[in-house]
Amino acid sequence: MNRYSKYLITLALVALAVTTFVLFEIQGKVLTTDPIVNDMLGRTIYQLSIGALFIWLIYIMGDRGYLFLNKTTKKKLLWCLPCLITCLVNFPWFGMFSGGVSISAAVYIPLYAVYIFSIALVEELVFRGVLLNIVFQYMRRSKLPYVFSVLISSAIFAAFHFFNLFDGASISSVLLQVGYTFLIGCMFAVIQIKMGSVWYCVILHALFDFGGMFTLFGFAFGDPWDVIFWILTIVFGLLCAGHIIVTLINMERNKYAS
Length: 258
Known about the structure:
By secondary structure, the protein is an all-alpha fold. Helix content is about 75%, strand content about 0%.
């Protein structure tokens, strides 16, 4: 592919991203009379257009390896298990079984799942696919390149959520979100380094957000954050944190060993 074709495709994807941003984020274009569908569909179209742009930019910039699902050993998949469990317990399982959380219309769930995937896609491409690799290039000659890269990229990822204040979120809720997104960001960053592909991060991020945002769009009701939820979150969160810390330590040791 020649340089002219690359520029043309890049401009087309930028134009698409800007257009969808204006239509759905600024103007709030109405696509359907159902407000729930309209909200999720507009956001999904916008997010997917941004995702397509970043996939293309990563591809033409040469850092293509983590855009593919590399052949993965059973050992690596087993390593991912604590991270997978941590993401799964973010869903209000006990609330669903006890009646504390109820679904008014399951027909919205497929679109909701696609919307959640689009959020995970964009955030992982930006913060793990691009940012983490840029930070690592600067930190690679430092004493603890993996540790610094994970902490710095995750801190920027967490700070990004301060923008939710402009959407009317309270300071307390945003501070809580910034705190846990930093921890989750560290987990995703280590997954990216360990697995060598951004798609594991996208999948696990989508699973985490699927539970975390389940009651925000008007088709599910109740309190998902019951006592059982917090017990499971704390227990598995601590176990996963230990798992991630040990992995980081081993990465730094193996770097010197090699």
